[in-house]
């Protein structure tokens, strides 16, 4: 049995089409059909049925595909282990960060690696949880840090809980609502909504918390004026306007310490913020250099 035949079977199973699978595999459709036929002949049974325009696995095909995924995963891990050995056991650091962790970790980590570990290759990707998990499963990333509730539990994933960070409304120093609060007048969500509200994309869990706390008007789908995965860009907008940022405090701790931004206390107060997790693929060999990233996360991802 050739592993390439198993790869061909999984590609057809994933896209449910011989023509699309052949395109992705850079094969002719006839060559792909011969490959699947050879596998069926060897295993003594039909692996793929046609249902309308879709090509779907038979019960035997599902059994073979499940085992084939494990076999191909182990093959990839074998090559990865050998590659790490030949690289003197270092390996690259390829990580994905959600908006909040990216604002806290990305620039300081890149600076740290450039100064202290210039020989290690580092690649950091920002994105939504869904996009980053696709890259993790495609093995173009080795680890992802996003909010734990934004990822559905799955047997192919392993996660380790990290810190829960405070989420708050943030505005520039001298903002009219800060003056209102200083005068002893409570700041409500209705007051906040008089100004543009900015935020990175929020998980369903955080969105539900806002609605529970402040009512239906706080649904991020309706109340956000500025939405961006790059929190630093939102910070720049808030610094020069009356826009209000909803963010984890850790993402703007430097600007708060410098007196450029301030936490805006509201009535009622904002609940605790998101809980993050460190996601990796179950069973995957981790490059030793990832220990540097893990240690950096432990030291910096906190309020």
Automatic annotation (TrEMBL):
Residues 1-58 form the HTH lysR-type domain. InterPro entries: LysR_HTH_N (IPR000847), LysR_subst-bd (IPR005119), WH-like_DNA-bd_sf (IPR036388), WH_DNA-bd_sf (IPR036390). It comes from the Bacteria. One of its GO terms (molecular function) is transcription cis-regulatory region binding. Keywords: DNA-binding, Transcription, Transcription regulation. PANTHER family: HTH-TYPE TRANSCRIPTIONAL ACTIVATOR BAUR, HTH-TYPE TRANSCRIPTIONAL REGULATOR. Belongs to the LysR transcriptional regulatory family. This is LysR family transcriptional regulator. It comes from Cupriavidus oxalaticus. The lineage of its organism: Bacteria, Pseudomonadati, Pseudomonadota, Betaproteobacteria, Burkholderiales.
